[in-house]
Amino acid sequence: MSIVFGTKEKPVEELDEDILVSHESPHRLIVWNDEVNTFEWVIETLIEVCGHSEEQAEQCAMIIHVQGKYAVKKGDYDTLKPMCNSINDRGINATVEETVS
After folding, report:
1. Could you tell me if residue 1 is inside a domain?
2. What CA–CA distance (Å, rounded) separates 42 from 78?
3. How many C-beta atoms lie closer than 10 Å to residue 95's C-beta?
4. Residue 83, Cα to own-chain centre: how many angstroms?
């Protein structure tokens, strides 16, 4: 990007500016509702795997139950994928999805 500055008294200067652009797409860790797992198990899993507080995990579990799914965590893919795998290993359906802007 170039910016041009100038007046009658001063000559025109051109400055080149670098713009920081993030090419990483944020991702979401989605936990899906099912008829198999209990609230207690989902809450315990969110606390242990995602580092949620008990209150946060309870709120997430309720939203999952009512809406059918919920993004319990946001971040980069390399951070969320192992969490997703751990949740799946506990018998809870979870996926990592790219956030759409």
Report:
1. no
2. 22
3. 15
4. 12
Ordered mean pLDDT values, 10 residues apiece, the chain (101 residues): 51 55 76 97 98 98 98 96 98 95 65
| R_g (Cα) of the chain, nearest Å | 22
Enter the pTM of the model: 0.74
Q: Is residue 66 part of a domain?
A: yes
**pLDDT at residue 100 in the model:** 80
- Kindly report the CATH number assigned to the domain that includes residue 54: 3.30.1390.10
Identity at 1, one-letter amino acid code:
M
pLDDT number for residue 4: 46
> What's the structural domain count of the chain?
1
Q: Which two tokens stand for residue 77?
A: 């893919």
Q: Which distant-in-sequence residues (6+ apart) come within 8 Å of 16 by Cβ?
A: 1, 2
CA distances from 5 to 17, 18, 19 (A): 13, 17, 19
Position 7 in a domain: no
Residue in the structure block whose two tokens are 């008294």: 9
Q: Is the distance from CB of 30 to CB of 87 less than 8 angstroms?
A: no
